[in-house]
Amino acid sequence: MTRTVMTYRVKDARGEELVVPSLRDLHDLYAHGFLSDDDLVRAETSTRWVRAGSMRALDGVRELRAERPGRWLLVAAALVALAAAIGMLLV
Fold first, then answer.
1. Which of 55, 19, 21, 60 is CA-nearest to residue 38?
2. Where are the domains of the chain?
């Protein structure tokens, strides 16, 4: 049994289109911030455009993106504390 990979088209606010070879690639682009919630997406077999932010296939990615700022703030604070501790040891 061969598995068919669905390709997707993405249209940004300027109307520029991008062909994305798979849902996994679409997921990665969204996860890394290359696609915004307002970008339009449609599967190759569809004529209907939907906002990336409303796609169920990207729900988990949205949750991870929402958590990131807090996580990075915690990492930055830990690095500052580590640098301060090292600085105290060297004095």
1. 55
2. 8-66
The CA distance from 19 to 15, in Å, is 13
CB environment 9-42: b (16+ within 10 A), e (fewer): ebeeeeeeeeebeebeebbebbbeeebeeebbbe
Euclidean distance between CA atoms 70 and 49, whole angstroms: 32
**Amino acid at the residue 69:** P
> Could you tell me the pLDDT band of residue 66, with boundaries at 50, 70 and 90?
low
Gap between the Cα atoms of 41 and 61, Å rounded:
15
Give pLDDT tens digits for 31-59.
888 898 999 999 999 999 999 999 988 88
